[in-house]
Structure formats: structure tokens, C-alpha cells
Amino acid sequence: MTNPPRSTLRKRLARADPSLTLPASVAVAEMPPGVRVAHVYPGSMAERAGFRPGDKLLLINGEPVRDTVDFFFHGADEELEIELESEAGEHRVVFLRKEVPEDHLGVEVEQFTTQHCGCNCVFCFVHQLPDHMRKSLYVKDEDYRLSFMQGSYITGTNLKDSDLERIARQRLTPLYLSAHAIDEDVRKYLLGIKKARPFLDLLRFFRRHRLQMHTQIVLTPDVNDGKELERTLETLVSFHPTVQSIAIVPVGMTKWREGLPELRAVDRAYARKFLREIKPRLREIEAQFGEPLALLADEWFLIAGQRPPSYSRYPDLPQLENGVGMVYHFYKDFAEARKLMPEKLPRPWRVAALTSTLSPPVLKKVVDLCHRCEGLTVDVIPVTNTLFGESIHVTGLLCGSDLGKAVRHNPSYDQYLLPGNCLRRYDERFLDDLTLDDLRGQTGKLITPVLGGSLDFVETVLEHAAGLEHRPPEEHPFLRPHWANT
Ligand code: SF4
User: Can you tell me which atom of ligand 1 is nearest the CA of 126?
Assistant: First the structure.
């Protein structure tokens, strides 16, 4: 097991703008206090107390305010003594007493700069990106505050003792931690680093402080599978309830791996063998704990050509963003979709559902439902990912250029659906920087993203085919792309 040459990594890492992150060596918990007020709500307690945008919050009740987490943590007290610094550098102290504990101060504070990741994982997606993509895509961040707030995965390798103390004191739990392998040599190889706090130490620290973590194992054939996986699972399971869940996801590899370590890809034969061998162990774990503590990403089943499991007995699946139970979740609102489907359309309507190469079987049930409606035709069109390579077959990594090609090669449809998770939500931009509007302009076609599950799929079609009123979901697990194997 050898790590990639330094020159390759240097070249790849140079594509990121270092000013976008804090160095991995920084102890976040020891950063100087000072969080800027971005907005003061009119009529709020803060406005009445004279807070202004640009003011810096330094201390709340004597505790340093280093970031949003501190602001919410200390700002939750009923009586607040806040030390501020104005833009002109004047210091003042404000005393506030909330009428009810749930009252908000009425300010928004600036988001903190995230910390840079200190690893060079052999499967890091950022290293496997082509050149000339958006600068922000090359940023490798790893920040326990984001793990707590948004559920993003961290390795824990840049956590200093002071950060761990803070996590325990502020109860920043659960966190999402990449375990990968319990053998430290295997783990360090996968993380591409020479020194790291042993994962066992993190597990023990979390258990001692009654903190919880969700974990993931990025399974890399011939590296952390087989006996190594058995050992890793055994250890993680023995730390339940500290370890709340374990997701096993297949390693993802793009075609841009020149100079990076050679890894074996997960193909259909491997996925089938892996599923055959792992399922009995997972059933044992489920029987032991009364819940499926260790879970497989749906991708395993799709690669193997099998149906992903239904999780109907477990309504609160914890690792949806990691692709566990996505297919089950897509059909959670299917009964409502069925009720909505009319017997007949006022006019014939032909729809092309563009999706990744693995996903046609996933859409079969909803497409069959559509075909019960007279006049409605839905064809599923798998789109090959030429930007990242054919082995990338998840919807979240489909790019505008490949989708555009698919539309032009299949010009005879009234409407084109595409998976909403391949678009950045706030500006409807694909990973290759094309926007949804660019695509519509280039093709002159009606192209609509599906932002939720099967109900949203049906509503998106009927909105245009039959004038149904449709409000796309604001928030949905499918809309949180999880494309870096952190
Ligand atoms: S996969 Fe995540 S943890 Fe590993 S190097 Fe990339 S950003 Fe860092």
C-alpha cells in the first residue's frame, strides 16, 4: 500500500483557494473571539439594545464567542451580558433579559470559515476532479462544527484536545465520523496521512463523555474489506450506543486518477459477492440490537442489480444523505402520488426522465404508475457521465453538458425531468458550471428538476401535462448532495 507521490498531490491541491479555509493545524476552540453581526431584525431585542450590523460579539456571559455555535450556545441563556466591539473599535457591554427563555436576540451572525482537511484520502473526490471546474469544488474542508450542524462527515484527525473538550462541554452531538478501518495502518493508508489520533481513542472519548456519533466506512476492495471489515464492524458495534449507526458505502472513482494510488473498483461481481457475505452479519447485528445498526448504501444493491431493502419498520433512518434507504425514501409518498394520478390527460404528453445509468430500475414503479394514465408516456433515459467517467453512476454527479447531450439526442419529448440533486440549489447550477437556464436556452426544451420523491415526480409531470398546482419541496434529503467521500 503506497501513498500517491507528493508532486501529484501538490498539483491537485494547488487548484483550491487557500483563503477559503482555516489551516488544518488550527485549534478551532482556541481561536480569538469575535463574530460579526450580519443583520439586526427590526423591532428585535438586539435592535432596541443598539446592536448594529458590523458589530463584533466578543463575549457572552464571560464566555468567548468564536463562531455561530458559541453564539447559539451562550445566547440561549436567559440573562445575557454581551461584550461588543463596534466597527469603529469601541467596546461596550450590553445587559439583556429575555421575557421567555425561547426569545431570540434578533440578530444573524456571519458564518464561520470552515477548517481545511489535513488528509489526502486515497479515494478523495476532490483529488479526482478534472481541472477547470468551479474553484469552490476544490476545497477540502473538515470541520466538526459543520458535522454537528449539517451532518457532514469528518475524519476527526484535525481535532485538537481543546476541540474535543469543547465538543464535550457544548454537547456537540451527534457528530458524523469516517471510521473506514479500525486497524490504524489501514486507516492511515486510506486517509493518506502518517500520524493520526487512533480512532479507538475517539470512540473511548465519546463514550466517556456520553456523546454519540454516526459512522461511515468507505469500503475499498482489497484494503478494508474481508477480515478487516469484520474487525472494524465488531469494534464499532461494541461501542453502541456511542456509535449510533454505521453506513458502509462503496468507494467511488472517477476517470481522473492519474498519479493517484491504484484502487480496485466496485463492479457488479464484487458487489454481489460482498452482499452475499455481509448480509448474514448485518442480520445478526440487527437481531442483537433490535435495529439495523450497520447499514448498506443503496448503491451496493443497484450495482449488484438487486432491489435495495425497504426500511418500513425504521421510520427515522439516520444515514439518508449517505445513500442508505434513498430508494425506500423516494417511494415513501407513493400512496399520495397514486391518488393524484388521473385516468386520462386532456392531451397526449411525452416525458423523458433523465437519470444516472444505475437508476432506471429505481424509477420503474413510478413510471408504471404514469403509464396507467391515458395519454401520458414516460421514458427513462440513462445518462452516461462522461465528465467524471462511466463508473460514476450516481444522480448527484450528473453534469449539465451530459444532460444537454441526452436532451439533444432524444428531441421528441414535451418535457424532460432531471434529478434535482445534481443542481446547486440556490443558483440552479450543475457541477460543470452550466445552469439550468443555460440548458433550457441551449435546447429550447421544457426541462424540470424533480426535487423530492415519487409524489414530486408525479406532480412535476402533472403540473405541465394537466395544469396541476405544484409547490416543489423546500427541503428534502435528496437535495443535500453528498459527493465527497469524507
Ligand atoms: S475525502 Fe474528505 S477527509 Fe479525505 S482528503 Fe478528501 S476532503 Fe479530506
Answer: 6
pLDDT at residue number 475: 67
In which residue are the cell numbers 483550491 written? Answer: 16
Question: What ranges make up the beta strands (E) of 32-143?
Answer: 35-40, 56-60, 63-64, 79-85, 91-97, 107-109
The predicted-structure confidence for 107-161, as pLDDT tens digits, reads as follows: 999 999 999 999 999 999 999 998 888 778 898 999 999 999 999 999 999 999 9
The whole-number pLDDT of residue 419 equals 95
Alpha carbon of 485 to ligand 1 centroid (Å): 7
**Which atom of ligand 1 has the smallest separation from the CA of 178?**
3
How many whole angstroms from 436 Cα to the centroid of ligand 1?
Answer: 29
Q: How many domains does the chain have?
A: 3
Q: Is residue 253 predicted with pLDDT exceeding 90?
A: yes
Boundary residue ending a domain (84, 109, 134): 109
Pocket lining for ligand 1, CB < 6 angstroms: 117, 119-121, 124, 126, 140, 142, 155, 484-486
**At 93, which helix (H) or strand (E)?**
strand 91-97
Tell me phi and psi for residue 52, to 5 degrees.
-130, 150
Same domain, 93 and 158: no
- How far is ligand 1, taken at its centre, from the CA of residue 156, in Å? 11
Q: How far is CA 456 from CA 100, 163, 208, 336, 476, in A?
A: 39, 42, 44, 10, 11
Query: Which of 85, 129, 153 has the alpha carbon at shortest distance from 256?
Result: 129
**Ligand 1 mean position to 400 CA, how many Å?**
25
Report CA(419)–ligand 1 centroid distance (Å): 25
Q: What percent of the chain has pLDDT over 70?
A: 96
Q: Is the pLDDT of residue 317 over 90?
A: no
Evaluate if residue 458 carries a pLDDT over 90: yes
Of 139, 147, 486, the residue with max ligand 1 atoms within 8 A of its CB, to mutate for a pocket test, comes to 486
Contact 145, 176 (CB under 8 A): no
| One domain, residues 124 and 150 | yes
127 and 226 share one domain: yes
Residue 208 falls inside a structural domain: yes
> How many whole angstroms from 394 Cα to the centroid of ligand 1?
19
Q: What are phi and psi of 393, to 5 degrees?
A: -130, 30
Q: 88: burial class by Cβ within 10 Å (0-12, 13-18, 19+)? A: exposed
Which protein residue's CA is at the shortest distance from atom 6 of ligand 1? Answer: 124
Q: Are 244 and 212 in contact (CB under 8 A)?
A: yes
CB neighbourhood size of 159 (10 A): 23
